[in-house]
Structures are given as structure tokens and as C-alpha cells.
Amino acid sequence: MVESLVHRLEAGARRWPERRALVWEGGALTHAELDALAVAAAARLAARGVGPGARLALAIPNRWAFVVALLAGWKLGATVVPLDPRLTSEERRAILADLAPALMLEEADVAVDPPARREALRAPAPVDAPALILYTSGSTGRPKGAVIGHAALASANLSWAGPVMALTPEDVVLAALPLSHSFGLNGALLAPLSTGASVTLLERFSPEAALDAIRRDSVTVFPAVATMFRRILDGSGLWHSSVSSLRIAVSGAAPCPWELAEEWQSRTGVRILRGYGMTELFRPISYRASDPSESPAAVGRPVPGVEVRIVEGELWIKSPHAMQSYLNAPEETREVLTGDGWFRTGDLARIAADGSVEIVGRKRERILRAGYSIFPAEVETVLLTHPAVAEAAVIGVQHGELGEEVAAFVALKPRASARPEELVAYCRERLASFKYPRQVTILPELPKSATGKILKAGLPAARRAAGG
Predict the structure, then answer these.
(1) pLDDT digits (tens, 9 = 90+) for 352-410
(2) Beta-carbon count within 10 A of 67 CB
């Protein structure tokens, strides 16, 4: 049986007590100090009724308080649910209504005073209680919580730390990705901490802040989405900054174009390890630090323990890192998980003779914008609440920097009026910053089939016909 991740982190605090675990501008915590703060925080949470199986929501940005609260929850056997701090109040309310947490913590709820000396708190041995619930937008327009077990979490981070990134205690990993999402949580935080490495926390990414942190802390591993690499390459800061400490970069969340990876390596001398994953599966397919071979069209090969196959063109994956289910959504769970453990990804793919996987399209509707998954139904639901909108359809359109951009098409009610910029602003107030459409096209009517179904494939042509 795989040792739980929290037990491995506790063992690491004993093995590397004086090594720096977390670093940020103006501060640092060693592995021993981090564990002690988590012990103290767990005692305070226990006094508030948090215990095994309780759901603990965290609405904390990329700061040390997030890590302390995460570890404290696990020490008590709680199921921890990180929430993106950028969610609007409406989006957060929808998730909390689905989740029904015992407690929600914000940064101010995590005490900053040094922990008192106390007996070490041994985390309960997890049985079937989930370790995490990570929310992703649902295809029905409502949020879905992917329930991740302790065994899957531990196994995934063994894979991240070992074959994928080949981490050692000497590494320094930059956490510029949101820790509330699976890529940042695993690749930029948990895998490094479990190997005794150091994590440099960056609350909000900018090219300048990332380059400053890489230089200041001699960062060796840089996990990022393609948009981050693109912004650094397009800015002027790279010409004036040293990235010589980096040994690898790691891409995830959204596909990293081969041309971008080539340009990054030619400019920095650093390879980008490309890969494929999602909230429900973490990173089942990846290139590896120890294997220099690359295929421009492929996203990598299955990591150890993962099986892949193609069923009617769709990529199916069986992985020890997979979610258990979607919370409160048995029908949606059955749509993606088979009885014998295969996950239907919704992506169309090909598998080469050498085992490398090429993604050729998407079966299920999903827009990948700058590494974030956005489902059209969620945006359409918001647009339809506007008093002037009769019909709405949302698609992804190609974007050179972001991969895809969110484009909305609407038909207005008779005698109603609204300007495109007004509808953009309306969505911006009600959706997270990465979700709202940057362009809205108003059409006399949306193209439909004989049965009345909106034909999304016809939307670009309808826009051209309308002179948009």
C-alpha cells in the first residue's frame, strides 16, 4: 500500500528539518517549522470541530497560510477543498452549496503567531476517506467536484517527483501556478515538498515577478502553462535576467505547442517537459526529465502504472491517480468512469507505435484558455440571465497566446437592445476572470438544425454573414 502523502511530508520534516520548505519575498519556513505550524493549526481546527471526513474549504492565495491549512486539514483526516481566490461570490456560493463544508478558511483564519511546543500530531491513517475535492466547471454549467483519494494523491506525487521531474532535495521549484488547481498543487507544491525540495511561492504571476524569483532564489524547476512561457518570451525582461539556475521547465493544463517549446529552449537553453492531464486524472501522460526524446505532435507517453487505449477515436485512460467520482453527481460520474476503472477523456487521440500519444481533437465541449478548462454551458447560463438575451451560444476560438479564447454569440429578445461591450461587462461581473467572453457577437438569430438545436459549427459563418 502506498504511504499517504501527509505521512511522507511528516517524515520529511524529521529527515530535513533545517532545509527551507517555503520561500517568498521577505520570508521562509523550514520543513520542521512548516510541520510545527500545521500541527498548531490542526489543534485549533480540531477545537472548531474539524475531524476525520469533514470537508474543509480553503479560499487562500499562494501564500504560506494555504500550505499550513492544507496540511493541518490532512493531519485531522479532513477532506480539503481548495477554492480559486479569483472566483466571484456567485461562483463560490454555488460550490459551497454543492460542497456543504464543515468550515471555510480564509487567510486571516490561519494564525500567524509561532506555534507553541506540543506533542507531534500523527495524521490518522486514511482508509477510504478522500484527501481532496477539486472543482472544475461542469458540462451542464454547474461546478463539479472531483473527489481524489489518499492513494491516488500519493501515487500521483510519486510520479511527479520521480519519473516526470526527477526532483531531489537540492531543487527549488517556483509555485507561480494557482495552488487551488491540480497542476500547481501537485507539480509546484506537493511533489517538491515530499522530496525535501524548496518551493518559492509567487502569489500572482507576471513575467517580471517570475524572473525576479528565479534569479533571487536560484530556482531550478519552473512549472507553468503555455501562456506564462509565451508572456516571458514576448517581454523584455528575459534579455536582462538570468535563468541559468533552471534545469527544466514543465508545462501542463493546456497543450504546449511544439513551436513554443522550441523557442523557449533556443532562448533559455532549458527544456520544457510537455504533458497531458486534467483535474480528474492529474498527469497520466508526460515526457520525462531522464528521457530526452521528443515527438513534436505528441504530448508524451503514459507514466508508469498508467494504461491508455483508443475507443472509437476517444482516448481512454486507466490510472492509479484517477478521481473516485464527482461529488453529488452519479450520472456524470458514470459518463466518464467505466465499471472497470477506465476514464473516458472526451479527447480524440492517436497512439503511435512507440507509445506516444497525440491529441487530435475534443469529443466533449471544453474550451482550454491559458490552461483553464471552461465549459460553454456555464457562460451561456450567465448570458441567458441578462434581460435582453433570448439565446446564447459559446465556443472556443483559436488564440495565438492563450490557446483558445471564449467567444459568445447571442440573439436578443424582440424590441430589446444591448451592446456587445455591455454583455462582456455583465459576464465579467459574474464569472471568474479566465471564464468571461472577451468578444460577444449579436446576431439576428442563431443558426439551428431542423429540430431547433443550435448549430455551433455555423456560428463563425453567421458572424461573417452579419458583417462581424
Answers:
(1) 999 999 987 767 677 889 888 888 888 998 999 999 998 999 999 989 888 899 999 99
(2) 27
The domain that contains 284 carries what CATH number?
Answer: 3.40.50.12780
Distance (Å, whole) CA 27 – CA 67:
14
Sheet holding 343-351, edge to edge: 307-311, 314-318, 343-351, 357-362
Q: What residue has cell string 464569472?
A: 431
The span from the CA of 390 to the CA of 258, in Å, is 41
Give residue 434's domain range. 367-465
Sign of CA dihedral 419, 425, 426, 427: positive
- 3-state SS class at 219: coil
Tell me which of 303, 333, 362 is where a domain ends: 362
Residue tagged 505528441 (cell numbers): 298
Residue 34 and residue 105 in one domain = yes
Rounded Cα distance, 387 and 242, in Å? 53
The domain boundary residue, chosen from 333, 362, 391? 362
Q: Is the pTM of this model over 0.85?
A: no
Number of domains in the chain: 2
Cα atoms found within 13 Å of the Cα of residue 389, Cβ hemisphere only: 25
3 CB neighbour count, 10 Å cutoff: 14
- Are 345 and 387 in a shared domain? no
**50 and 22 inside one domain:** yes
Give the H/E segment covering residue 91. Answer: helix 89-99
